[in-house]
Design goal:
Layout lengths: L4 H10 L9 H33 L18 H18 L13 H23 L6 H31 L5 E6 L2 H13 L5 E8 L9 E4 L2 E8 L3 H8 L3 E4 L7 H14 L2 E4 L11 E6 L2 E6 L10 H32 L5 E7 L5 E7 L10 H8 L16 H8 L7 H6 L4 E3 L6 H4 L15 E3 L12 H13 L3 H17 L5
Parallel strand pairs: 1-2, 1-5, 2-4, 5-6, 11-12
Antiparallel strand pairs: 3-4, 7-8, 9-10
Helix pairs in contact: 2-3, 2-5, 3-4, 4-5, 7-8, 9-11
Subcellular location: Membrane
Family: Belongs to the bacterial sugar transferase family.
Membrane topology: Multi-pass membrane protein
Amino acid sequence: MSYNISAGRAVRANRPPRPEPRSDRERWQADYARRLFISDLCVVVLCVGFGQWVRFGGSGAEPPLASQLPLEVRYTMVSIVLAVAWSATLALSGTRSPRVIGSGTEEYRRVVAASLKLFGGIAIVSLLLRVDIARGYLAIALPVGMLGLMVERRLWRRWVAVRRARGAYRTAVLVVGSPEAARAMVAAFSRDRDSGYQVIGVCTRDDGVLVDRVVEVGGREIPVVAGDHDVIDAVRRTGADTVAVTATDNLGPADFRRMAWELDELGAELIVTPGLVDIAGTRLTHRVLADMPMLHVEKPQYDRAKSIRKGVFDFCFALAALFAIAPALCLIALAVKVTSRGPVFYLSERIGRDGRPFRMIKFRSMYADAEAHISALIESNGGNPLFFKVRDDPRITSVGKVIRKYSLDELPQFLNVLRGEMSIVGPRPQVQREVDSYDGVMRRRLLVKPGVTGLWQVSGRSDLTPEDAMRLDLSYVENWSMVLDLLLIAKTIGAVTKGEGAY
């Protein structure tokens, strides 16, 4: 398929008005946005009304707004105007944009930013016009409203997840690129199931033998539906909503432009990936140079992950956590002691930052002689010493199965954090036999302190393959931020309460 740019312009100029929406993706996104609009408005009205009720009571005798305006304005009218302005600000700030709704953190960030901008604007206007709005009223409406909106968006995401599990609210994707790059992109979409992207086919370079070819990723076979110059025809045949283009030698700038025009006519979306792996968005800066879009990648964040700020946060968090869970620690220690012989705590030598060994503290979950059987167990199960864990390990006690399921055996590691040997969030702590097998890339894990939790904890725990665990640890080391730490701590609570993937 050869692309004729001038012909494409003529088609665009002469085609009749097209109906909206034009694809399944646009239909469900429009439906979801309408639901969000209604629920956002309800939440805002309720929270603003709650702020007025708490501040002025429910007698209906709220005082007029203190101002130099010629008309007397009651707070009921103020609440109505505030609710309308808040809803409009959410819309203008793109909080219901198809690009952000349903997955990722950008949706939440926009909701918070829009709310803060609105109340900041109110403060400026009230100062300029000398309008004295009751501070207690605003101090209640703002935090309650933001919390309500965040909870509402979270509930909608759970609803969407249920719909996606049933086959709805999904985006059908065609991946375009070389076989190796296409395989990597399919794997990336498979890891992020919450986004709703479902790869239905691959368009790769045409070597003359496309029939019955497949791309295998994670045990799933994705059919090769066309060559990379027959993308538009493949979209028509498969009904794909989105085309994701990765590294390919066969498509030039003119081809991309033509493809974007024709996909627009079909109502399909075009995604282009630069092929960067495990690079956080905070490290990317977009700029245009000589009419070409470019991405500037900031250097890895190793040094920031060693900052004093992170160390102070770790110490304070660990100290507060130990005080909060002290009763639970005593109960677990008693259960371990009375159900099996041996010490309450298990001290295991692990390798910390810069290769320094330390004694990691855990509640003992195995029989006292468990370490003597490790070599035989690895050999009999064909395990990988780099990341050895076996389901239904015969060395685990009855109490150990319970505390491992919910990661309660890890709680004493807060003591390691207080001693400066570990961090709250970081790579998995490794034993010496694992570190001995490291290559140059894997040794980057030792640039920061190991963590009580980390990306591995919220992404599958013991069910992860060694390769995925390594990739997640390296991604954390290179992309560290304080916001990432807080997000992972919040996700860890959900992961351990479900008790999935731990053994």
